[in-house]
Amino acid sequence: MLITKADGTTQQFDATKLERSLRRAGAKSEDVIQVLAEVEKSLTPGVKTHEIYERAFAVLRGRGGPTSARYTLRAAIQQLGPTGFPFEDFMARLFEYEGYKTLTRQNLQGQCALHEIDVVGYRGDKTFIGEVKFHKDPGYKSDLQTALYSYARYLDVLESKVCAEDICGINTLKIITNTKFTQAMLEYSLCKGIELHSWGFPHGDASLESLVEKYQMYPITILSSLSEHHKILLMQRSIVLCRDFIDKQQELRALKIPEKIIIAAAAEAEALFAQQIQ
């Protein structure tokens, strides 16, 4: 049966993709079987992929446990907006787990112009500048234009340093998005040696979702116990991760978040970390 992807194109429904996403979220075998059966029973021609995943989430949530929250990880990352700054902070924290010291929203003087860089990171073997593209629309793809201007900026700041240490000379450009890249951008970036991170790319353990799962970088937007108002309030104070929520509960009380909501959300967050991926 043909279904409609986020970018408007159509493809045949592939139950194995749904099964992989369920297992990645830690769903038990009996849950996977039940969700697949319920989803396939409700399919209609042209149904949108987000509707399929919403149906899968509803079935998972009805079966209880933290798996349903982890299954909504992509949607939770989509909520790290609307300014994009929370996503920049999120990525900076992620790269810290990769061994980098990071800074966000830095002004670097190039040979010809002053540039604001979304995130920079440095460690013994590598120093990068990163262009972080946040898109609220899950069907929007970062395109060739992004790669072209990012690479021009990279060339202009190559002689600059991101800090005073000897290891701080720039040698790598990264482009990160919460959605996907166009094929033209992928080909250009491969040609120019640009490192890309997006949902599903590169294949293996360096894609956005793989890195998030590897380091358990669950954003607070994944917590259903929090209202949209509370999530925005927390992100405005750079509390972006579930582990921040657990560690900074005293600060949360100062924000006048009701105690029962703090307790419920903290329990929800702790359940995410306690569950092991099957």
UniProtKB/TrEMBL annotation:
It comes from the Bacteria. Residues 1-105 form the ATP-cone domain. Pfam families: ATP-cone. SUPFAM superfamilies: Restriction endonuclease-like. The keyword NAD does not apply. Keywords: ATP-binding, Nucleotide-binding. One of its GO terms (molecular function) is nucleic acid binding. This is ATP-cone domain-containing protein. It comes from Candidatus Kaiserbacteria bacterium RIFCSPHIGHO2_02_FULL_49_34.
